[in-house]
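Hi, here's the filled form for the chain we discussed.

Project: internal
Contact: R.S.
Residues: 176
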Amino acid sequence: MDDKDKQKLIEENEKLKKENARLKEILEGKKIKEINIKLKKENEELKKAIKNNVNMPFDIPLCTIIENEEISDEELEKLLDELEDLTDEKQDMEIISLLSRSKKRLEVLESLKNENKIPSVISKDINDSSHHISKYLKTLKETGLVVCLNENDKRYRYYSITPKGTKYLNIVKNKK
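And the returned structure, exactly as it came back:
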């Protein structure tokens, strides 16, 4: 390979690097747009809640803070903490509601409490069809209450209850 060929390769490589950097910027821009869209939706939901006078656990009326352009760092920090608490409480209620609506979901979690199992064993434990167990596990997995330990295997997938699953199982059991 002579110097001209090497120089061409170097120039092509530089062009590809620039194109790669440009594509990364575009991709990052799309991610930022997606995050902005999500935040805008959440903001709209919050505004609707305020308009509808939903009981919000704030010491300072949120509409006053929104209209006021200057917010102290302490007020902002407090507001963010309260919003986080509200979000956690909402998530808690959604999961508790999900578990309370189905005795079988609770039984699946109970079955996994002491050991990891495959769906057919869970099916025998709670006396329900494997098809139903798969549906329950899918829902529980989506909410982070169980995890599949060997996701890539087609058969004999072992499931385990997560610490989050144990927490909510105990909460719902203690409410009954």
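Let me know if anything looks off before we file it.
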